[in-house]
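Appendix B, Record 12. Input sequence as logged:
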Amino acid sequence: MKNNLKRDAKPTARAGGETAALLSMSNGGTPRNGSAVRAAARSGDAVSAPVSERRPVVRRSARAAAKARARRGTRRMPVEKVIKESQRWLDIIKRHDRLTTAQKKRVVKETIKSFDTYFNTGFLAYRKSVAEAEQYASVEWTGEGTAIQDIMGRSYIDCLGGFGIYSAGIRHPKVVEAVRAQLDHMPLSSQELLDPLRGALAELLGEIAPGNLQKCFFINNGTDAVEGAMKLARLYTEKSGFISTLRGEHDDFTVGDRFDAGVALAYRLTEDVKQFPNYSVSTEVLGNWLGKDDDAGAENESSGGTTTYLSVGFRARFDEHIALTVAPAVPLTQDLNGDQVEARAKLAVALGFSF
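Logged structural output:
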């Protein structure tokens, strides 16, 4: 996609040496919907810009729309309270070492509520910082080196290192000094001008990387890293398939019970059973019941259910010891819990050996 960025050759002069530039983004030289973005140096004067009032259309399922309506019906903080709450947390940060016991308990209570309601449903169920923290959950508050203290003053040895961000230890003096020095003149990259530190880090990584690895692409989370690795794998192998798993296995996870029952009829196509190869066909109605999975004592609502399949099979026995069975099946009825995807069909292939 061609991206044409136009700037006024002569910026308009403002009082106090301030300048303003008119930028327009276009595709092939044609402005989109007549929109323009005006950028100006910070000043007390407001800079107006025509903005399209039309919002993009977002397609949502009926279930998602219903959930959105339910949230709107039960909320929420007015804007004034949101601002006041933000300021309260900023004050807590400033007074982090001077909080009373009552204030600490309130922070613990509010943290659990926020994680459960707004962050990630089910996250608290298998966290040892909650399940094994006795009366008050472990809310991290301060740390240094390999030691962490929660808000109630309990100490822990850090064996995780923040997935790598604390490889040099928490609040290492040299790291703190370097970060403080950078904050004093430019906290983060503007993403517009060239960042010298980004170039310097890319050079160092390119020089120590093995083989022909030289180019760097910086990202800020593991999800982007995995996505990039998948794209590189597809590019290199020229294949599109991936093998993945759902719900990582851990000590507190138990798969639900399963019960199968069916009725089958078979017909032998080869009259002499001692003749090889011999063939047979079958049909079967199979009922499958799955119980809900248990995750740290909490039932997974998107697991379990009942399905009835109709299967038609073909079997070929090549000799007294080896047989091959192929049996496609289609669901007659499905009643699955939660947001599970219903199956359209399945295929069973079995190679049997007998001795």
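The longest helix spans residues 101-119.
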